[in-house]
Amino acid sequence: MRYDTLSGSIYLATVGVAIADRLIPFPASREIGVALTVAFLALEFHRTPPLQRWVGLALAALGVGTAWAGGNLWASLFDCLYRSQIFLVMFFAVSWLRDPAVTSPSLRDLRDAVVRQPPGRRYPILWLSAHFLGAVLNLAAMSLLVSMASDQREPRLRRRLSIALMHGFTVASAWGPFYVSVAVILTAVPGVKWSEIAPWGILMSMGLLAVGWSYDRLVLREPTPKRVGPPEHPLRAAVLGRVALLLVQLISLVALLHEAAGLSIPISLGIVAPPFALAWAAVQAAPGRRVRDGAQALAGRIFRALPQLRNEAVAFVAASLCGVGVAQVVPPERIGAWLDAAGLGPEAVILGLIAAMIGFGIAGLHPVIVVFMVGEVVRPDTVGLAPQTMALAMLGVWGLSTMGSPFSATTLFMSRVLAVPSHILGWRWNLPLLLLSAVAVAVYVLVLHRQVF
Question: Which residues have C-beta within 8 Å of that of residue 43, sequence separation ≥ 6?
Fold first, then answer.
């Protein structure tokens, strides 16, 4: 058996056991799932990029050391690996949607219309397209729309469109049900449901659209913009309707399982996404060859790509282990007392949390590190916050922190397509808008804390 075949088979088995355990637990289902997770990580760890490997080792070492100091090493390790399976399911599910999304005629029609918008309407339409498509299709949305920026030869316009695309895409992590941010934060902050925070997240993202559009018009836009690119191509209602129907179908199926059956979003998506994607790929193939060239071909590509999910698996398991371990030596019940002694109220917690996630992101570290540590150590009730407030604060800046990181998947993807160094994108192009947006998120969450939750 080839190395990749063995690794992919183990990942597939891990996902199957994790879903089965959440639906109908069977004897030793938890132990089998944990063993499979360890086996996949052991096989693929040496193939992760060096920086991510060393960061993962450092986080895991910190987690193991603190868990050992707290006298609960093996139970903490088992609990961490068990809970991490849900993120492996999430990565698996989202990967199914990328191929059929990129080849979908309806989405290609929408992309052609977005690319050909005239100055004045171009920024908000590109932002909204990246935002709502990204909320469901993740990086597939970037693949569809990135040509609008990469094909531009005028440097200033290229930069503006790149920022609009990245801002719209990353801000969708404030509410998008298929972003890993939602799965992580709903796991880290117990007692919060997606339906409770999604409306507030959408409203926050619309405010961030206003921030981005204002920044573009006042700072980046030339005083007398010239018409650049191909002629205008109208956004037809038929195209918008087909795309909306497609996205609503997928979201509705996942939301139905999440709300009616009480399953988490990653598990719901893990059940819905593969058959949905297979059917989507099949209808795009020629009649008579829908199974072979559509569904079977997609399934083969997904299986062969499973080992490539190693980077996400290592990062999230290591961060989860770090958070669980730190919680053993920093009891959550003491945090509130320490904050009271320091004269820091709930508002300071909100601002500190936002600043920490943004700072970690700019330093190149994934926001999952802060979220897991905060989720394990800081309990909302001990610091005077509603769970919804804490969740929205972290959701609001999750995507912004990846926008400023030279090592995030979004920045690296854009760097590769635009042939611009990732540190230029994160630290020079995106940083001013990132900081403005973070201030807007802080104001918004503080208002919700005082007036709503």
Answer: 3, 6, 7, 10
Neighbours of 82 (CB within 10 A): 18
CA dihedral 327, 333, 334, 335 (to 10 degrees): 80
Cα separation, 51 vs 34, in Å, equals 25
Amino acid occupying residue 145:
L
Distance of alpha carbon 254 from alpha carbon 271, whole angstroms:
8
Position 355 scores a pLDDT of: 93
Tell me, letter by letter, the H, E, C secondary structure of 135-201.
HHHCHHHHHHHCHHHHCCCCHHHHHHHHHHHHHHHHHHHHCCCCCHHHHHHHHHCCCCCHHHHHHHH
- Residue pair 162/425 in contact by the 8 Å Cβ criterion: yes
What is the pTM (predicted TM-score) of this model?
0.82
pLDDT in tens, 150-191: 777 788 888 888 999 999 999 999 998 888 888 888 888 878
Per-residue pLDDT reduced to its tens digit, 68-84 = 887 778 887 888 888 88
Label residue 204 by pLDDT band (50, 70, 90): very high
* Cβ partners under 8 Å of residue 122, min gap 6: 161
How far apart CA 295 and CA 274 sit, in angstroms, is: 10
Contacts of 68 (CB under 8 A, 6+ apart): none
Count Cβ atoms below 10 Å from residue 52 Cβ, excluding itself.
Answer: 18
Q: Check if the beta carbon of residue 134 is closer than 8 Å to that of residue 176.
A: yes
Give me the mean pLDDT over the 319-324 stretch.
79
CA 284 – CA 197 distance, rounded (Å)? 35
Mean pLDDT of 300-312: 89
| Contacts with 390 (C-beta within 8 Å, 6 or more apart), sequence order | 189, 349, 350, 353, 374, 378, 380
State in Å, rounded, how far the first CA of the chain is from the last one. 55
pLDDT of 58 > 80? The answer is yes
Helix axes 180-188, 387-403, angle to 10 degrees: 140
Determine the Cα–Cα distance for residues 155 and 67; give it in Å rounded to an integer.
Answer: 51
* Token pair in block for residue 433: 């808008």
**pLDDT tens column, 385-442:** 889 999 999 999 999 999 988 878 788 888 888 888 888 988 999 999 999 999 999 9
Q: Is 325 helix (H, G, I), strand (E, B) or coil?
A: helix
